[in-house]
Amino acid sequence: MAADIVALPNIIHTFIHNVESVFWVLLWMACAYTPTSWDVGTHSSFIRDTMSPRVFVGTGGRNKLFFL
Predict the structure, then answer these.
(1) Which of 1, 7, 20, 48 suits a disulfide with 60, CB 3.0-4.6 Å?
(2) pLDDT in tens, 30-66
(3) How many of the other CB atoms lie within 10 Å of CB of 51?
């Protein structure tokens, strides 16, 4: 979900928000499916800690914007 919509749920949903959502999905897919030298546990914990909604909960989208 776009950071703006997380921060301000009453704003008008635009095409740009959809583009940002696609970016997040592509980033997740790149992290999940790009071959690395990490073992499975390290790779899984990186994805879980970076992409988990609990990382961004309560920040109103600020952490998501900072990540970008």
Answers:
(1) 7
(2) 888 888 898 888 888 877 777 766 666 666 566 666 6
(3) 15
Three-class SS string for the chain?
A: CCHHHHHCCCCCCCHHHHHHHHHHHHHHHHHHHCCCCCCHHHHHHHHHHHHCHHHHCCCCCHHHHHHC
Please report, as a single letter, which amino acid is at residue 22. V
Measured between its terminal Cα atoms, the distance across the chain in Å is 13
Report the C-alpha gap between 14 and 5 in whole angstroms.
10
Q: Which residue has the tokens 């740009």?
A: 16
Please state, in angstroms and rounded to a whole number, the distance separating the CA atoms of residues 30 and 59: 25
